[in-house]
Design goal:
With 72 residues, the protein is mostly helical. 76% of the residues lie in helices and 0% in strands. It is globular. It starts with a helix and ends in a 7-residue tail after the last helix.
């Protein structure tokens, strides 16, 4: 089940625009603070928060369309 979940998360990240995927990977999955993520992307803290919100919206949509990848 853990391997399956990782596969789904990886597939979803591949569907995101690169900056969205980077924010999710660094902030949400790796636990870096917003200042580090902002520095990595060359963006402001506010831009990182906006990218993260947009990424989460896109992930919610993708999760619905990718539910067929999850075992029943």
């Amino acid at each position: 089940a853990v391997g399956e979940a990782r596969h789904v998360v990886q597939r979803m990240l591949e569907e995101l625009p690169p900056d969205y995927a980077t924010v999710v990977r660094l902030y949400d999955l790796e636990g870096h603070d917003v200042d580090k993520v902002a520095g990595e992307l060359g963006r402001s803290r506010g831009a990182v928060h906006m990218l993260r919100a947009r990424a989460h919206d896109r992930l919610r949509t993708l999760l619905g369309s990718m539910s067929n990848y999850l075992s029943q």
